[in-house]
């Protein structure tokens, strides 16, 4: 299901894994494709690959959320990158970048939100909001 490297402070969750309890780790959590988390994820950095499911909260400093991931809530102290076609309820962070096709109810940033492409966001709150349409 998962491996821990204590010297590098990395937890690797194998693809297609199901984690049924809360995870708290003092380091990075790397989750493989289509992993499911039924509880909260707490770590310094959280990296979720494509197609993950998180029923609990993600609490971290930095997060990269892979495409087609479904999540409940992300609370980050620094930056959050949400890749294309993710579905979520709420994101709170210092800086947030959302790529095309995302559907998120509440997005709150202390500083900047960058929206790259067309996404459905019900409520956006930030000091600065930048909306762009890249051709990449």
Give the helix/strand layout.
Layout: E1 2-5, E2 10-13, E3 18-19, E4 23-24, E5 28-31, E6 36-37, E7 41-42, E8 45-48, E9 53-60, E10 62-65, E11 70-76, E12 79-82, E13 87-99, E14 103-116, E15 120-125, E16 128-132
Parallel strand pairs: 2-5, 3-6, 4-7, 5-8, 6-9, 7-9, 8-10, 9-11, 10-12, 11-13, 12-13, 13-14, 14-15, 14-16
Antiparallel strand pairs: 1-2
Describe this structure in words.
0% of the residues lie in helices and 62% in strands. It has 136 residues and is mostly beta strands. The chain is built from no helices and 16 strands. The protein has a 16-stranded mixed β-sheet that branches. It has strands at residues 2-5, 10-13, 18-19, 23-24, 28-31, 36-37, 41-42, 45-48, 53-60, 62-65, 70-76, 79-82, 87-99, 103-116, 120-125, 128-132.
Please state roughly what percent of the residues sit in beta strands, choosing from under 5%, 5-15%, 15-25%, 25-35%, 35-45% or over 45%. over 45%
Please estimate the helix content.
Answer: under 10%
What is the distance, rounded to the nearest whole angstrom, between the alpha carbons of the first and last residues?
A: 35 Å
| Count of helix runs | 0
Mean pLDDT: 96
Number of strands: 16
Q: Class by helix and strand content? A: mainly beta
Integer-rounded radius of gyration: 14 Å
Q: Which ranges are low-confidence, i.e. pLDDT below 50, for 5 or more consecutive residues?
A: none
Largest sheet: 16 strands, mixed
Order of helices and strands: EEEEEEEEEEEEEEEE
Shape: globular
